[in-house]
């Protein structure tokens, strides 16, 4: 290994591997155009190429690969949701993450270390108990834990009964973990490109052409391309892009902020979250402490961080870990979340024929990256919505069959 590194360092030309091809001209038409080169769009392209043999695909993005919400989330992976439909869906995604490094030949730095969600009230304890039983019934490892067990899981957690919201119990989710968000995007991009999928960065979509109720072309800043199918997977900009196709989505977009501290020695292995405190905490492999929580209280298409959210998050985190008051912050950032009324995604068909939706993820888009791509690819290939995502169709809002997942997060509710 040392001689190999020395040879590489002294070489006149670096034999660096290019993960995806450089810029190229757009073709006049494609079988499928995917709008959005984030995790979901690239996962869809990969599954189309590998498992359905469909490689006449163009992935378009106004920025760069994984540069939107994929690069701005806190990389949490879990399946401890509330409704049976959501639990089954995210359970399948966790199972795919477990083998994703081998699947793509690209290290995802996947770490399954569990998630502890804290209950500070009798109402939360009752809700967690029901949630744990539903999870276990569907094969997800979740269980109620008492104060003694919480001390064993996270010894450094503040368990003082005189704190503002004393900890009464917790929901321990053994399947919870993290992975590298950029690795997921680049892994899917690299493998999709190797199979013939075209990835066009710096290619903004400016219009959707619809003829007789069917999508026929996508207009970009580099020209118009015809297509038989189009998919939008653009996270916080979902409403704006859908509007180009004449579709009105029940989505509101809010900034969601997070931050990390300076690196410190490992002290926190599980993920810890609190719905009452609107905060969650985890520690990275580099030792940085990742802090996230509630979204901004107003709709905005902005990724600027704010002092107000920083102060609120810090105050809430210090209730759980008072000693962290000595740490310094390294950076703070924001993403744009696309929130639906029931905090569940919108997947599948749209009122425009052959125009497919991958939207409404709110605060949990990253953890669904593998399974959403698999299901969307299956839907496109068969021209029929895949079974696993049928409950999350847009028509559920017309039929009033919603899935209330607001209580399944410590952020943005």
Describe this structure in words.
The protein has 413 residues and is α+β, with helices and mostly antiparallel strands. It has helices spanning 2-10, 39-52, 84-98, 100-104, 122-137, 147-153, 181-194, 238-244, 307-320, 369-382, 396-399; strands spanning 29-35, 57-60, 76-77, 111-112, 115-119, 142-145, 169-173, 177-178, 198-200, 205-211, 214-220, 223-232, 252-261, 271-274, 279-283, 289-293, 329-339, 346-348, 355-359. Helix 2 runs parallel beside helix 7, helix 2 (39-52) packs across helix 10 (369-382) and helix 3 (84-98) crosses helix 10 (369-382). The longest helix has 16 residues, at 122-137. The N and C termini lie far apart (50 Å). The model has no long low-confidence stretch (mean pLDDT 93).
Named CATH topology of the largest domain: FAD/NAD(P)-binding domain
Strand content: 15-25%
Count of individual helical segments: 11
What integer value in Å does the Rg equal? 22 Å
Reading the helices and strands in chain order gives: HEHEEHHEEHEHEEHEEEEHEEEEHEEEHH
Note the gap between the termini. Answer: 50 Å
The major sheet is characterized as: 8 strands, mixed
Shape estimate: globular
Low-pLDDT runs:
none
Please state the structural category.
alpha+beta
CATH class of the largest domain: Alpha Beta
- Helical content (DSSP H or I, runs of 4+): 25-40%
């Amino acid at each position: 290994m040392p001689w190999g590194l020395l040879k590489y360092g002294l070489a006149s030309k670096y034999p660096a591997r290019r993960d995806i091809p450089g810029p190229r001209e757009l073709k006049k038409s494609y079988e499928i155009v995917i709008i959005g080169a984030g995790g979901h769009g690239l996962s869809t392209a990969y599954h189309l190429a590998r498992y359905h043999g469909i490689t006449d695909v163009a992935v378009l993005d106004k920025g760069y690969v994984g540069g939107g919400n994929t690069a701005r989330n806190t990389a949490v992976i879990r399946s401890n949701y509330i409704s049976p439909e959501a639990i089954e869906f995210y359970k399948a995604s966790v199972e795919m993450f477990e083998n994703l490094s081998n699947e793509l030949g690209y290290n995802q730095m996947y770490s399954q270390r569990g998630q502890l969600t804290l209950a500070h009230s009798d109402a939360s304890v009752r809700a967690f108990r029901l949630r744990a039983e539903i999870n276990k019934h569907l094969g997800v490892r979740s269980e109620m834990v008492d104060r003694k067990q919480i001390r064993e899981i996270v010894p450094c957690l503040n368990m003082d009964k005189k704190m503002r919201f004393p900890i009464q119990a917790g929901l321990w989710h053994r399947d919870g973990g993290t992975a590298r968000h950029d690795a997921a995007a680049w892994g899917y991009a690299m493998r999709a490109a190797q199979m013939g999928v075209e990835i066009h960065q710096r290619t903004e979509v400016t219009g959707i052409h619809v003829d007789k109720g069917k999508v026929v072309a996508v207009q970009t800043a580099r020209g118009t391309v015809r297509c038989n199918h189009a998919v939008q997977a653009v996270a916080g900009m979902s409403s704006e892009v859908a509007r180009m196709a004449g579709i009105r989505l029940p989505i509101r977009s809010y900034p969601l902020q997070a931050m990390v501290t300076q690196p410190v020695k490992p002290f926190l292995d599980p993920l810890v979250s609190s719905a009452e405190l609107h905060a969650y905490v985890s520690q990275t492999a580099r030792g940085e402490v990742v802090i996230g929580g509630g979204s901004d209280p107003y709709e905005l298409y902005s990724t600027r961080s704010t002092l107000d959210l920083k102060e609120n998050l810090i105050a809430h985190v210090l209730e759980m870990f008072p000693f962290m008051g000595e740490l310094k912050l390294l950076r703070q950032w924001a993403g744009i979340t696309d929130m639906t009324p029931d905090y569940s995604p919108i997947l599948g068909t749209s009122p425009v024929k052959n125009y497919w939706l991958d939207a409404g993820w709110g605060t949990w888009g990253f953890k669904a990256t593998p399974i959403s791509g698999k299901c969307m690819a299956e839907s496109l290939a068969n021209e029929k919505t895949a079974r696993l995502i049928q409950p999350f169709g847009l028509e559920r809002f017309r039929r009033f069959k919603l899935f209330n997942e607001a209580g399944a997060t410590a952020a943005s509710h």
